[in-house]
UniProtKB/TrEMBL annotation:
Coiled-coil regions listed: none
Keyword Transmembrane helix: no
Gene: flr_1
Name of this chain's protein: Flavoredoxin
Every Flavin reductase like domain range: 12-164
SMART domains to which the protein is assigned, alphabetical: Flavin_Reduct
Keywords for the protein's UniProt record, in alphabetical order: Flavoprotein
Length: 190
């Protein structure tokens, strides 16, 4: 039997994304965001939801762009730090020993050390409540060659990302493959 625990933000797992923006004076900034995901395939888009009090909120509004840098487990401490300190108070790139790279396609920086990067131009802003959802069209994906498979596309196990469990406030590694998508369910198809 299921027990009601109320309306909570317990979709599991949540991604661990590091959103890159430029501040008012052109300073690179990053913040860790867990409220995000793919929201359209054509054009390819992602959505991230941020509170108005975040430095990244104003940066996205002003620059109309952001990046999503997806960290590997190797950089779990750096990603965690980027979500603990405000860009209004610290240079998070310098403090975490990360390298800011200026995107050639959008007005935002990304994290050199992280294996997978989504460069996004802002296409929609949706006021929801405490959070504002920013929808960014992905104008390019950059990946370290080491994380690409034989088909030239990223392989989850090579990217080695991690996820966030909101109710526990814990990070989890991504496990092994458990089956081929669009194949396992064929046994139910008539």
């Amino acid at each position: 039997m299921k027990k009601s625990i109320g309306a909570k933000t317990f979709a599991m797992p949540a991604p661990v994304w590091v959103v890159g923006t430029y501040g008012a004076n052109g300073e690179p900034n990053i913040m860790t965001a867990a409220w995000g995901g793919i929201c359209c395939s054509t054009p390819p888009c992602v959505a991230v939801s941020l509170q108005k009090i975040r430095a990244s909120y104003d940066n996205i509004i002003k620059r109309k762009a952001f990046t999503v840098s997806i960290p590997s487990k190797k950089f779990i401490s750096e990603a965690d730090f980027a979500g603990m300190v405000s860009g209004k108070d610290a240079d998070k790139f310098a403090a975490a020993g990360l390298t800011a790279v200026k995107s050639e396609l959008v007005d935002a920086p990304y994290v050199q050390e992280f294996p997978l990067i989504l460069e996004c131009k802002l296409v929609h802003t949706i006021e929801i409540g405490l959070h504002t959802q920013f929808i960014g069209e992905i104008v390019d994906v950059k990946a370290e060659e080491a994380v690409l498979g034989d088909n030239g596309l990223p392989v989850l196990g090579k990217v080695d990302p991690f996820s966030y469990s909101p109710p526990e406030r814990l990070y989890y590694g991504v496990g092994q493959s458990v089956g081929q998508a669009y194949s396992l369910g064929l046994k139910f198809k008539k």
